[in-house]
Amino acid sequence: MYTAAAALYPDALASSVTLPMEILQAASQMASVGERGRAQARFLLTAPDTTPLRLASGIQLSPDIAFDQLPPLDLLILPAIWRNPLPTLKGASRWLAQLAAIAGQGTRICSVGTASCLLAEAGLLDGRPATTHWNYFDRFARRYPRVQLKTRHLITQSDNIYCVGSVNSIADLMVHIVEGWFGTRVARAVEQQFSPEIRRSFRAAAYQDSTRSSHHDETVIQAQQYLQDNLASGGRLEDLARQLDISPRTLSRRFRIATGYSTQQYLNSLRLATARDLLRRSNLSIAEICWQLGLQDVSYFARLFRQHHGVSPMRYREAARGKLFDPVAGAGRGRRP
């Protein structure tokens, strides 16, 4: 079972707590279908103590557990801060040191909006890329000159440290996390339910620090970048190996060790992510999307898309454009409230 938590403080925006909570709860329920109904994730609220906390919006939340009692976490969310973050930073001084300890355990920590200031205060963003709410770009840059502020990206990632610039972007990140935990079908179903608007995928929206990749094979990093830049022509292992001056057999072995995928599987995942964006954002025909992805066979593309997402490309486009929810196979259909 995966364990996620959200930190609470008086000026936290409730929506940046409840949206990730609901997305993860929905994913857990969908994933539990194949696990005899057993919950696959839990979401905790945490604060310095368990005294009920009334947020600036007037909503009262009750922490499940104190910071110093937290179990090992897979994800910790630092909710967006309403208006000036400085009062929150001052109030957080007694528990900021725990963030470094939690990060050191390998926990993914994600800040929303100006909660990136909490990560910066804890020293977790020194020398790393980060983003924050657009209205605080200048103040953030002045206060934290050692942070590599990325003003053109809504999401940044460096190792296990994530920053998203707004409450809306946390949905994109949560879908990305759900996909890693529960697979593509669950992620796409959650995406249709919670964020079917025309949006960008995590891969398209995020700035990822390749120097702090989850693996450190520079040749494989170059291969990943080449595939990203050459979706329409980068499919042959032999051609990729020639670009990197390495034998196809060695590249294949190292790529799988580093990423867990073959080069073709990785390329397909890039193509499918791009296809989803084009189906949402453009009026290109299915055949034209295939051409942009370097695929000549429309029926093969349709089979590949259905295999990974459970619906045809056209049905996916209709659902995204019409804000419909297509649950995983076997469940009924419903319209988003």
UniProtKB/TrEMBL annotation:
Transmembrane segments: none
KW Transcription regulation (keyword) present: yes
InterPro entries in alphabetical order: Class_I_gatase-like (IPR029062), Homeodomain-like_sf (IPR009057), HTH_AraC (IPR018060), HTH_AraC-typ_CS (IPR018062), INH-QAR (IPR052158), Tscrpt_reg_AraC-type_HTH (IPR020449)
One GO molecular-function entry: sequence-specific DNA binding
Domain HTH araC/xylS-type: 221-319
Pfam families for the chain: HTH_18
Keyword vocabulary terms for this entry: DNA-binding, Transcription, Transcription regulation
Cross-referenced SUPFAM superfamilies: Class I glutamine amidotransferase-like, Homeodomain-like
Keyword Transcription: yes
PANTHER family, per database record: ARAC-FAMILY TRANSCRIPTIONAL REGULATOR (PTHR43130), TRANSCRIPTIONAL REGULATORY PROTEIN (PTHR43130:SF11)
Record's protein name: Helix-turn-helix domain-containing protein
Lineage, opening ranks: Bacteria, Pseudomonadati, Pseudomonadota, Gammaproteobacteria, Cellvibrionales
